[in-house]
């Protein structure tokens, strides 16, 4: 199949609808990996996961295995996890601490910043090989940058800076970090890894969808509403049960009390969903009172009030990151194939907050967003059903037009829905999608290669 | 093995008391597995004490359900909610429903006192749903006590061999 042109791609996105092939076509998927995951800023980890020189963490961009490393100078490095010799993946563990990286195949070793340190039997190599040349290394990803501890990498040499790419969404990260009395977050409490048989784009498309809970989550809404609060509890389900009940709010709630905002590069957030008073019963909850006291002691009353007044629910950073400041939860979407996705869900500890705050974070994740939770399991079912539904040959176009006529311009170059049931954030993601995807694909090197070439090895000059 | 960290009241001296033997414990675990396989979740719930804990850790050797996420961690209130949801006609993640088959083996009593005992067992679980089958296996721990109608579960911990793997949704309890 010949490569699609930019015009072919543009024809797949129309006002208020997209072609089904965006979720089913393996060629489009490969192009997404090359042109979106191959150039956008992709979240790769948090600085707290590599606190000290020598700390490293296995991560990835798209399907590429990478290492996030704190080098000897304390600088963050993002390296391709590939030996310069025969291509073996150098580090097989999920993370740890080391003074150097050593390939287990022939013992080539590397500095923490990826430079080749030593290799045995360095003799007889041809002229091009120079162990001092930085090309012979565990190569760095072209660009790596952090915003307030959140580390992103980009496989493109050039492009917008991270801050320009995030734009107004930096304020959602601020919201997350500013909720820590000590002004710092720490990844803690393990990782949920979910998988579903559907396209990677579905996950973020669902997370700001205010019109789905009433249907998809009916089983947990009913079960939580019928649950007696009089039976024994260690308190760990408190907030989750409130959340499940709240998911059953009628359309009028979503249309009158909740908003959706979207921004350039495909980002968006759902705002005003819950204030803390609804979810943690702020004034009555002793843990939250202690938390507010810790905040006020560090930041003062006014600043604390300002921080806690921000009422954002899910913030989506295109293409594959979503987080929620109120429960310090962050999800990274990993595309595996056109119809298979893995999502990693992390939690953050607010430094300086009472320990019980983090217990709330954990129990909220378990019951609402966990692999065995009462809520997310129905979302995973929907993603898989979309995958199954699209394997039929039903309608060619998928509708993303809800609220289309009511979209309004917003500050900071944004667009907001008239209310939260608008699909403006999905349309906005596809605007970004087109920006990446409609560029004509670079010519594949293989097409320019002659069918037969004489062996270059036979006449190479050996390096003495 | 210390779980839960705060001992539920039911683990305090219980009038019926008395020693458990391994055969009795094994019979109880087989009965529990049968209730789950047959989808008799209300009856399964009734095996638990009023202040039970039910725990499926997300990490091997996980020390606590409080500072680390779990695949499932329920107190009595959440376990009731979980079981009630399983009976909902709108639980789409069970449409079609799973069919399961459990094998219990290698049952040993790890600790015992006048009030009850901790039983360790190996299990394998086949789950079939929507034209595919997955297999789970691992180790379960039950704290068993004497209750009004016989043996009750004060807490249950299920350590899956693949607890930290990427998994599709887990809906049917282990």
Describe this entry's structure for a reader.
The complex is a heterodimer of chains A (464) and B (174). Chain A is an alpha+beta fold and 464 residues long. Chain A contains 16 helices and 22 strands. Chain A has helices at 6-10, 21-24, 26-35, 162-166, 170-178, 201-207, 213-216, 218-225, 238-246, 251-257, 276-280, 286-299, 301-309, 355-369, 376-389, 424-437; strands spanning 13-14, 17-19, 42-46, 55-61, 64-70, 76-80, 95-97, 101-102, 109-110, 116-118, 143-147, 150-154, 185-196, 259-263, 267-271, 312-317, 321-324, 329-337, 340-350, 397-399, 408-410, 414-416. Chain A has a nine-stranded antiparallel β-sheet with strand order 13-19-18-17-16-15-14-22-21, sandwiched between helices. Chain A has a four-stranded antiparallel β-sheet with strand order 6-5-4-7, with no helix packed on it. In chain A, a hairpin with a 4-residue loop joins strand 17 and strand 18. In chain A, helix 8 packs across helix 9, helix 9 (238-246) packs across helix 14 and helix 12 crosses helix 13. Chain A is globular, with a radius of gyration of 24 Å. The two termini of chain A are 47 Å apart. Residues 443-451 and 460-464 of chain A have low confidence and may be disordered. Chain B has 174 residues and is of the alpha+beta class. In chain B, strand 5 (132-147) and strand 6 (150-160) form a beta hairpin. The radius of gyration of chain B is 16 Å and the shape is globular. Classes of the chains: A alpha+beta (464), B alpha+beta (174). At the A-B interface, strand 13, helix 8, helix 9, helix 14 and helix 15 of A face strand 1, strand 2 and helix 3 of B.
């Amino acid at each position: 199949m010949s490569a699609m042109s930019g015009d072919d791609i543009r024809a797949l996105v129309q006002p208020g609808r997209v072609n089904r092939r965006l979720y089913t076509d393996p060629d489009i998927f490969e192009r997404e990996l090359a042109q979106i995951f191959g150039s956008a800023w992709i979240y790769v980890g948090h600085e707290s996961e590599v606190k000290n020189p020598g700390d490293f963490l296995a991560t990835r961009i798209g399907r590429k295995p990478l290492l996030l490393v704190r080098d000897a100078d304390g600088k963050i490095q993002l390296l391709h996890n590939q030996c310069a010799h025969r291509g073996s993946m150098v580090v097989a563990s999920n993370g740890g601490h080391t003074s150097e990286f050593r390939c287990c195949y022939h013992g080539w070793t590397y500095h923490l910043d990826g430079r080749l340190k030593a290799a045995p039997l360095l003799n007889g190599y041809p002229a091009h090989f120079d162990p001092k040349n930085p090309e012979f290394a565990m190569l760095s990803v072209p660009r790596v940058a952090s915003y307030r501890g959140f580390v992103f990498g980009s496989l493109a040499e050039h492009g917008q800076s991270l801050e320009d790419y995030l734009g107004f969404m930096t304020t959602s990260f601020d919201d997350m970090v500013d909720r820590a009395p000590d002004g710092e977050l720490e990844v803690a409490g393990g990782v949920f890894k979910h998988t579903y048989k559907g396209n990677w784009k579905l996950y973020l498309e669902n997370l700001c969808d205010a019109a789905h809970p009433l249907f998809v989550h009916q089983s947990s809404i009913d079960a939580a509403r019928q649950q007696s609060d009089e039976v024994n509890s260690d308190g760990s389900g408190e907030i989750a049960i409130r959340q499940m009940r709240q998911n059953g709010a009628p359309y009028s709630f979503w249309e009158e009390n909740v908003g959706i905002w979207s921004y350039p590069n495909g980002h968006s957030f759902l705002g005003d969903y819950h204030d803390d008073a609804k979810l943690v019963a702020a004034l009555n909850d002793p843990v939250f009172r202690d938390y507010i006291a810790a905040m006020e002691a560090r930041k003062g009353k006014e600043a604390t009030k300002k921080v806690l007044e921000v009422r954002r629910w899910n913030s989506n950073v295109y293409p594959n990151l979503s987080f929620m400041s109120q429960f310090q939860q962050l999800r990274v979407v990993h595309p595996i194939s056109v119809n298979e996705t893995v999502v990693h869900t992390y939690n953050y500890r607010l430094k300086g907050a009472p320990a019980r705050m983090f217990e709330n974070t954990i129990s909220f994740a378990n019951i609402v967003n966990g692999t065995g939770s009462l809520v997310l399991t129905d979302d995973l079912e929907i993603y898989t059903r979309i995958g199954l539904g699209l394997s039929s040959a039903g309608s060619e176009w998928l509708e993303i037009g809800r609220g289309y006529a009511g979209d309004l311009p917003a500050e900071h170059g944004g667009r907001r829905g008239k209310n939260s049931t608008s699909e403006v954030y999905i349309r906005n993601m596809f605007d970004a999608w087109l920006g990446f995807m409609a560029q004509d694909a670079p010519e594949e090197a293989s097409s320019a290669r002659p069918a037969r070439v004489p062996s270059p090895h036979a006449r190479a000059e050996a390096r003495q | 093995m210390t779980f839960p960290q705060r001992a539920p009241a039911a683990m305090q001296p219980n009038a019926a008391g008395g020693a458990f033997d391994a055969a009795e414990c094994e019979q109880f675990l087989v009965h529990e597995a049968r209730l789950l396989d047959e989808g008799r979740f209300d009856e399964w719930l009734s095996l638990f004490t009023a202040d039970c804990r039910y725990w499926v850790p997300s990490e091997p050797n996980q020390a606590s359900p409080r500072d680390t996420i779990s695949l499932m961690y329920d107190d009595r209130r959440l376990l009731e909610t979980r079981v009630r949801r399983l009976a909902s006609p709108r639980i789409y993640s069970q449409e079609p429903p799973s069919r399961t088959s459990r094998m219990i083996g290698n049952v040993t009593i790890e600790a015992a006192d006048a009030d009850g005992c901790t039983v360790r067992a190996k299990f394998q679980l086949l789950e079939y749903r929507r034209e595919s089958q997955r297999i789970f296996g691992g180790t379960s721990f039950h704290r068993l006590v004497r209750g009004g109608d016989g043996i009750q579960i004060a807490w249950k911990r299920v350590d899956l061999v693949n607890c930290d793997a990427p998994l599709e949704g887990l809906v049917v309890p282990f």
